[in-house]
């Protein structure tokens, strides 16, 4: 599939959420937090695999006045499940400790120590911005491609080390920043830069160094000038063909299209819109003022930042098409997926 995708005449945009998850996995391994996470998984599995233990946990939650909720087991293929497991375990640590003390058996796992609880509390703080960015870029009801570079800039700023950080936190931040920087370079960065510039919310390009901003606007001017060029006839007459040779011999192409340059400059002078506003609606209302830029905005801003919406549909199809329902036709499965998705959006 990867080799076939390279042959397609389309720009490729890797899934940013997948890259982010891989960086988190590498940082956890390099920071030495894998052992405490393995202990957390063993604790959660002790309650997930035993109805009696789960019932006792619910009783302890009720006695302490907490909401009755099950623990969450993290899965490597399910993004943000690690931070969800940590958050749920920390919220119910007293009920979990009380339940384990009631059933002291050889197979009963040991409760996390105070030092280990402090470690996963620090890890929760580290992973919370990553969860926020993943959920932000995984939406399907709004523009996400232009948010990638501002979101990554936010993560790099959050992951800066400080003197108060313990050693394992510094190692996590260093490993995460290094790995994510390498993965960022392997993405289609130029496409992301243009998409960010064509978003009226982020067109100031504060997420980029000052030395790179003018290069982005220059590429937009070049592409918008190609959009504004009139379509040539397939077979021009000899007279027009000879005249076109004179234009080809001149250096006017190097000067660019003044109209497109002015259009880009006028767009840069427009006030930025609110973060809650939709950039496509803005471009729809300003398409007449920027006829060469509006098609570019539709082209770049329509690109999804992640494959999360597609994978949600794959998971939904897997729940519908099970072994006992293997005789469903393709048309019926498609209709069931559509109906389920529409009902979810309606709720």
Give the topology.
Elements lengths: L1 H6 L8 H16 L2 H15 L2 H13 L17 H11 L1 H10 L11 H24 L10 H11 L8 H19 L3 H9 L12 H19 L9 H12 L2 H4 L2 H11 L10 H7 L8 H8 L6 H13 L9 H17 L1
Helix pairs in contact: 2-7, 2-9, 3-5, 4-6, 5-7, 7-8, 10-11, 11-14, 15-16, 17-18
Q: Which key phrases capture this entry?
A:
globular; 347 residues; mainly alpha
Q: How does this structure look, described?
A:
The protein is 65% helix and 0% strand. By secondary structure, it is mainly α. Among the domains are: 13-142, no CATH class; 320-347, no CATH class. The model is unreliable at 231-236 and 238-254 (pLDDT under 50).
Q: Show unreliable segments.
A: 231-236, 238-254
Portion in beta strands? under 5%
Calculate Rg over CA atoms: 27 Å
Distance between the termini: 36 Å
Structural class, by secondary structure, is mainly alpha
Indicate the multimeric state. Answer: single chain
Mean pLDDT: 86
Helical segment count: 18
Helical content stands at 55-70%
Question: What is the H/E string?
Answer: HHHHHHHHHHHHHHHHHH
How many strand elements? 0
- Tell me about the biggest sheet? none
């Amino acid at each position: 599939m990867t080799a076939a995708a390279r042959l397609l005449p389309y720009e490729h945009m890797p899934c940013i959420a997948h890259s982010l998850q891989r960086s988190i996995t590498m940082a956890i391994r390099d920071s030495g937090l894998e052992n405490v996470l393995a202990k957390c998984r063993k604790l959660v599995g002790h309650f997930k695999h035993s109805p009696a233990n789960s019932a006792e946990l619910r009783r302890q939650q009720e006695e302490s006045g907490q909401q009755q909720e099950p623990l969450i087991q993290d899965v490597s293929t399910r993004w943000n499940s690690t931070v969800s497991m940590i958050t749920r375990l920390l919220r119910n640590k007293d009920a979990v400790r009380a339940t384990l003390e009631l059933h002291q058996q050889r197979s009963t796992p040991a409760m996390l120590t105070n030092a280990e609880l402090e470690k996963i509390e620090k890890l929760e703080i580290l992973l919370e911005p990553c969860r926020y960015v993943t959920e932000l870029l995984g939406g399907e009801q709004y523009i996400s491609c232009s948010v990638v570079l501002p979101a990554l800039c936010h993560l790099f700023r959050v992951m800066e080390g400080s003197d108060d950080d313990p050693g394992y936190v510094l190692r996590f931040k260093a490993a995460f920043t290094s790995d994510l920087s390498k993965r960022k370079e392997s993405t289609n960065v130029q496409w992301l830069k243009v998409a960010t510039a064509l978003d009226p919310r982020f067109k100031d390009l504060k997420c980029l160094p000052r030395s790179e901003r003018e290069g982005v606007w220059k590429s937009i001017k070049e592409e918008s000038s190609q959009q504004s060029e009139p379509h040539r006839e397939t077979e021009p007459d000899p007279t027009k063909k000879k005249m076109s040779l004179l234009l080809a011999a001149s250096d006017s192409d190097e000067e660019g299209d003044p109209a497109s340059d002015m259009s880009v400059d006028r767009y840069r002078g427009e006030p930025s819109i609110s973060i809650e506003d939709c950039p496509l609606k803005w471009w729809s209302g300003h398409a007449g003022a920027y006829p060469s830029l509006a098609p570019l905005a539709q082209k770049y801003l329509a690109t999804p930042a992640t494959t999360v919406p597609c994978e949600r549909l794959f998971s939904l199809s897997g729940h519908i098409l099970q072994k006992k329902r293997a005789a469903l036709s393709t048309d019926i499965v498609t209709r069931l997926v559509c109906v389920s998705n529409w009902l979810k959006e309606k709720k």
